[in-house]
Each structure stands twice: as C-alpha cells, then as structure tokens.
Design goal:
The protein is α/β, with parallel strands linked by helices. The chain has six helices and six strands; from the N terminus they run αββαβαββααβα. A four-stranded mixed β-sheet has the order 3-5-4-6, with helices on both faces. It has a two-stranded parallel ribbon with strand order 1-2. A hairpin with a 2-residue loop joins strand 4 and strand 5. The protein is globular.
C-alpha cells in the first residue's frame, strides 16, 4: 500500500485515502456496504469526500503500475479506465454519483464494468498496457516484481 500511496502522490493526487475494512492503517475508510467488492469501497470514499472533483481508483495488486499511467488517467476530462483493465480508473464526481452507487449496491448489481458504463466512463489505450498486470497470489506478485523469479508449486 505504501507503494501505491507514493504513486498516487507522484501522479498529482491532492490526497490519498484507502478503502479498507480494517482500522489498522491511518487514512482508511470502512465500507458502509460491507462485502460488496470494489463498488462498496468506491461508495465509501465518495461519501467521505463529497467535495472531491474526481477519484483515481487503484487496486493494490498491480505491482508494475507506474506513475505515467496514473497521470494519463488524471489528464482525461471524463471518467475513464484502460481498455483491457477496469482498474485503475478515474471517476469524476457528480451530483448523481452517490445515488448511482447506492442503487447498484442496494440491488446487488456489483459488477464494475456496467457501473463505469452507466456513469459514462470511456475506455482509453496506452502503450504501457503490460503495467496493468493484476496479481492474485503471492507467487504472481513475486513474478511481477521480480521477472527472473520462477514460482514453485509450493508458493
């Protein structure tokens, strides 16, 4: 998370908050809609920061993500995400954003792609798409941060 926080600050974010349901880290926001995946976390952050102009949403499981990709998102005039990856994404704040999130959360419509489509987010491209590799296991993380590392079957 420290790496992600540093990237966001370097990319030009005014503030960095973490949506996490464990209060062991400062600047964390707990979900009001628990166990609802990314939309629950996005909702919690949007509700806690209604004055923000936009939200740059970033998962912690993309170890190769770099500042230029985040800056490219931040330069977009509309909500957007990368063509082959829903995260990271930029969500511009609006009067309808909380309502849109709450309607989806209340009706268990938790998929991110339909939400992004509903708010008018555009898919953009980049020449650095390989940096959007998502890791789901410790072995995948190690392979991403250390390409010469060959995961064993016991990891």
């Amino acid at each position: 998370m420290d790496r992600s926080r540093e990237w966001l600050l370097q990319a030009g974010c005014d503030a960095v908050v973490i949506s996490r349901n464990t209060p062991d880290i400062s600047h964390t926001i707990a979900d009001q809609y628990t166990n609802q995946g990314p939309l629950g976390g996005i909702h919690a952050v949007v509700k806690a920061h209604p004055q923000a102009k936009a939200f740059l949403i970033l998962p912690v499981d993309m170890p190769q993500l770099g500042v230029p990709l985040l800056q490219q998102l931040m330069q977009q005039p509309h909500s957007c995400f990368y063509q082959d990856s829903l995260f990271p994404c930029l969500i511009h704040n609006s009067a309808e954003l909380v309502t849109q999130l709450e309607q989806r959360l209340d009706s268990d419509q938790l998929r991110v792609k339909p939400f992004l489509k509903a708010i008018g987010a555009n898919a953009i491209t980049s020449s650095q798409m390989e940096q959007l590799q998502n890791t789901n296991t410790p072995a995948e993380w190690q392979a991403a941060v250390n390409p010469s590392h060959t995961p064993s079957t016991t990891e």
